[in-house]
Automatic annotation (TrEMBL):
It comes from Rhodamnia argentea. GO terms for molecular function: serine-type endopeptidase activity. One of its GO terms (biological process) is proteolysis. Residues 190-260 form the PDZ domain. Keywords: Hydrolase, Protease, Serine protease. Pfam families: PDZ, Peptidase_S41. This is Carboxyl-terminal-processing peptidase 3, chloroplastic. PROSITE patterns: PDZ (PS50106).
């Protein structure tokens, strides 16, 4: 039987073919207590030269387990030399005990599936397992034997006949880590992720997310002047169907992929709206053309404001809906334009911003800060605290600042809010944030899929834990709309009239008045 071997470089995190070995397994009921690097059924060979003399023996990590009868039928088809493969395959994770602290590479050998698509996923499994083994934030892997998880999952994948089923097995393996943010996504889903991060899109102009309690797909944001906006789809609407397919149980990533497509084509959606021109809750069908969508995560406006003493001032309003690659540049352009118009104070709106590129969040934070302030602290898997500091920072403006947050503000939004608040630069107004304090690496695997791995946690500059806790604002408010007809809210949500009717913005302006009365520099 052919045993495929791959070498996983721990430094570069690159997987490459090593050598192939033809192996015939005996009918021994249990694996040997020790084995050489040429006789392990599934071999993880730790090839660090410095550690080779000390760690040369590899031993079976688990006792053999008899597979189910349907496994036995599948395995019989491989060849005559596999009389004892049932016992060997069930225990085929043999680990050479190299020290993770000094390991440089792993060589992994495994029985190859005769189904080409499944064999590809086998390689993906090894690649994902190795990345998690070396980088996952919890070195106990949720208090389980991570090496034996590879053995178990490879046994489950071997007899499968489709790539989708094999990917589901990898997903099940990752779920045992107890971290919903460590996950694998398909090549198509990864392309959708990259499109969202790059800021270029062919689609209908909708940002959607799954509602945590119900799983329903809800519109987070509608791109201005997009086909979805022109069709009257609004924030908070629920997507029910896409091209006749009911979306119950469908992830937001899969639904987003269905909405995207070549410009000039169309997609039909059913939308459940809680409000529709004065009528009750309705479900309507809308046919949307796909177009080239310019994704700018930033919108801005200047709000005229009357101070308590009667003087008129200008408040610069910046709404940041996501942290894409162009987010920081767009925020900088908006601030500089408002500075030219002599704005007196600012409101930075991070409500319902789910995060994105952490670097973009740090770049935006530096636009408001001077010197060498700490932007955020990270804690790695060994418990080491590492601050991320500015270097000779120069703020674009020193005008008073209020940051709006709510339960939809997560990840990079929380980093940005924490950096500005803990450095005394901004007052936070709104609701407690989501509480995602995890830092992730994203690695494209050999088949075009991508692995998201939580590699560290972050805490605020004042050492406040954020993960599963969130940030509580200085002033609480609810985003009620007052003194304006609901019809006008849906016509232009960024209009000054709509902004002035937002109760949280009213609270923010009151806080800015207080800062102005204390003589804050501008």
């Amino acid at each position: 039987m052919e045993r495929l071997c791959y070498k996983f470089d721990l430094k570069s995190q690159h997987l490459s073919p090593s050598h192939a070995v033809l192996t015939r397994y005996s009918s021994s009921p249990s694996p040997p207590s020790s084995c050489s690097s040429h006789s392990c059924p599934l071999l993880l060979d730790c090839s660090n030269r410095r550690a080779r003399r000390r760690w040369r023996t590899c031993s079976a990590s688990v006792a053999p387990v008899e597979p189910e009868p349907d496994y036995r039928r599948s395995l019989k088809s491989i060849g005559r030399g596999l009389i004892g493969f049932a016992a060997a395959a069930a225990a085929f994770a043999s680990v050479c005990s190299d020290s993770p602290a000094v390991a440089e590479s792993l060589t992994v050998a495994f029985p190859a599936s005769h189904v080409r698509e499944v064999n590809t996923v086998q390689r993906t499994l090894v690649e994902a397992w190795g990345l998690i083994r070396e980088t996952f934030v919890d070195p106990t892997f949720n208090h389980q034997d991570w090496d034996s998880k590879l053995q178990q999952t490879m046994v489950e994948i071997f007899p499968l006949r489709s790539a989708d089923a094999a990917y589901n097995k990898i997903g099940a393996m990752l779920s045992t880590l107890g971290d919903p943010f460590t996950r694998i996504i398909s090549p198509k889903e990864y392309q959708s992720f990259r499109i969202g991060s790059d800021g270029n899109l062919q689609g209908v102009g909708l940002f959607i997310n799954a509602e945590p309690n119900t799983g329903h797909l809800v519109v987070l944001y509608c791109v201005d002047s997009s086909p979805a906006a022109r069709a009257g789809i609004h924030e908070g609407d629920e997507l029910v169907e896409i091209d006749g397919e009911i979306l119950e149980g469908v992830s937001s990533e899969v639904a987003a992929q269905k909405l995207r497509g070549r410009a000039g084509t169309t997609v039909t959606v059913k939308v459940h709206s809680g409000y529709d021109g004065g009528s009750a809750s309705t479900v309507r069908e809308v046919k949307l053309p796909r177009e080239y969508i310019k994704l700018s995560p930033v919108s801005s406006a200047i709000i005229p404001h009357r101070m308590p003493d009667g003087n008129m001032t200008k408040t610069g309003y910046v709404k940041l809906s996501a942290f894409s690659q162009n987010a920081a540049a767009d925020v900088e352009n908006a601030i500089q334009e408002m500075e030219r118009q002599d704005v007196d104070a600012y409101i930075l709106d991070l409500r319902n911003n789910p995060g994105g590129l952490v670097k973009a969040g740090l770049d935006v934070a530096q636009m408001w800060l001077d010197g060498d302030e700490t932007l955020v602290n990270t804690i790695d898997r060994e418990g080491n605290l590492q601050p991320i500091n500015m270097i000779d920072g120069h703020a674009i403006t020193h005008d008073p600042l209020v940051v709006l947050v709510n339960e939809g503000s997560a990840s990079a939004s929380e980093i940005l809010a924490g950096a500005l608040h803990d450095n005394g630069r901004a007052i936070l107004v709104g609701h407690k944030t989501f509480g995602k304090g995890k830092i992730q690496s994203v690695t494209e695997l050999h088949d075009g899929s991508a692995l998201f791995v939580t590699v560290a946690k972050y805490i605020s500059p004042s050492l406040r834990d954020i993960d599963q806790v969130g940030i509580t604002p200085d002033v609480q408010c609810t985003a009620d709309m007052i003194n304006v007809p609901k019809e006008s809210l849906f016509k232009d949500k960024s209009s000054v009239l709509t902004l002035e009717a937002d109760s949280c913005i009213m609270v923010a302006e009151h806080e800015l008045d207080i800062q102005e009365s204390k003589g804050t520099a501008s």
